[in-house]
Records
---
Amino acid sequence: SGDDIEDVSLFDADDDVSRRSKKSKIRHPVASFFHLFFRVSAIIVYLLCELLTSSFIACMVTIILLLSCDFWAVKNVTGRLMVGLRWWNQVDDDGKSHWIFEARKASAQGSRTSSEAESRIFWLGLITCPMIWVVFAFSALFSFKVKWLAVVVMGVVLQGANLYGYIRCKVGSRKNLTSMATNYLGKQFLRQVRFPGGWKPS
């Protein structure tokens, strides 16, 4: 009858909701905060320093300290916690320098300790801020602000180094990139030779 209604627990739906909430949840709020704090603070100080003080030395030291703290925090803490990536330089017994790039492997259950929200925050901050410093570099160059050029170049170098390192961690070594590009170009060339003019068999 219509009155006989049985309550059924939708376990699959509950699992989907909990899985979705885990992906969107920020598991390392302190790391996420400091991932953006130092780099955004350096940009704000650069934009407002002439309004706050007339001392160029004080502004330069403050910006460089913020950039240095950002470089250390992103390289050693936030990258490992937020996206499971890390990179460093190691010198062997022969004195040769080796760059090492690592990515955390998924656990046996296939779960990841980093969430999608943290990953978005990490990559957004990592990519956007160096682009802003590049814009500052061109602005300082074309406006002939030579004294600010060294500070801006420091921002481009420090934040660009972290960006380069984490991209290498994410996509693999240069050899892997080269082989991927070679394979792709080879496939495109063979496709053009086999089917000239873009014609493909149906």
---
Amino acid sequence: FLFRKINRDPNTEARKGFEEANEWVEAQQNGHVKDSLNNQPEINHRNRARNSQWEPPPSGWLKCNFDSGFIKGRDYTTTGWIIRDETGHMVSSGCAKLQQSHSALQAEALGFLHVLQVVWMQGHRCVWFEGDNSELVRLINSNGNHIKIGTLLYDIHQWRTKLPLSSLHHVNREKNVAADMLSKRAPSINSMYETFTVPPIWLVNYLYHPFTI
């Protein structure tokens, strides 16, 4: 504040510190794994398999994976989300048709704004969000701006203040496959949105991959 005249919200700064610390620890762990697994193809194979499996959130947290679909010229945006607890049990999930988007980044931002509202309305507060669009995650976590989605970013930041204990992380597409399947479901629904409290048959195979807690 003294040197740059920027007055930042303490909760936002604390959350950023938490996220950056987690990213540093993960980077150190990944670097150690890469160094130690050289010339060990069978271990590398297991590591690749693990990198495709959904991982549980910390104890006491829920994890919400989200994904959106963008097709140029389509008059709506598809999005899907799934909330799971630390044991992998599905708490709820859903898909929706949102307003039209004009880029993949805008589609992902619309989807994240929607899922923030859903999570808040369902009464969840300690939530670990994961999405596979690295640009959106970077923009949000750095309080960045973007000429084409600036209004959406503002709305997202406002809704995140209602969830001060939440965090947002980037995840690869393989670990986000359940949310992707839900997003692909959206074009076939007759209403604007659809929610599930019990996993539908077509989603079950994408939920219960083995993982280590």
